[in-house]
């Protein structure tokens, strides 16, 4: 069995955990201690894996750093890796997403706050603004959600470099078929109950929390909304609710199984009451039929009451397994598709992002 690497970004630093040959994960000492790590990716496209981390220096601002030796040493571009052109009048607040392109070897995408997309052509060292999205007529009407005006999801097409999708809170879901030159809002069927009666299905303005898809079925998306879990079978053209059987259709993360395109995972929360797990029980829900039915997965998870949520990027499914981290610093993993769970780390700072990969 191949070795696995787990990257855990927290409010106070980055933790890396390694597993050799299917053995237990060993958590290494913290990197970037006291610095928030809101985005991380493990880029395995080249001969040497590259870890990219979107960090927040506090009053020195956000940046992107990379490591080509599995976190032993880190580098940063001499100038700010992500910066808005002066004429935009905007400044970078946070890097929310780092996503390598599956079709262009040196391309990495970055989703940032305030609501913008950047593209790198040198493996994530430097980035340039995608002006087609920035100049979209809807952008000036987007309103920040509770976490800010964040572009938190970037989904390049697995085969077509011209096709991609993004999600913004609270702008909604958008797609492009020309490499980001133009963008179309694609939110038909997603209900926004926070709008007045009679206008709850707007063209844009939905509070999308997370979107994912499987590379073997690129036309199918799964989406966790502020109110609802949805599926689209036509690349976002229309959306159908699939969350009615869940104990709550409110939540933040959503992850699709790496090998089974009809299998997805969510972590339901108590809506806007206090955003804690439903019944104060730690339960991941899995659907094996594209949202038709759901099963609660609890084996190995805490039996005592829990009160910590799982954030939008703190759940990930890859060849290394399924993993999630909580706001009270607990990280759990599964190597059998969620049928049972084991603790990876405990007593970490607030977990913001989890990413796993086979090396």
UniProtKB/TrEMBL annotation:
<protein>
    <submittedName>
        <fullName>Exo-alpha-sialidase</fullName>
    </submittedName>
</protein>
<dbReference type="InterPro" id="IPR015943">
    <property type="entry name" value="WD40/YVTN_repeat-like_dom_sf"/>
</dbReference>
<dbReference type="InterPro" id="IPR052025">
    <property type="entry name" value="Xyloglucanase_GH74"/>
</dbReference>
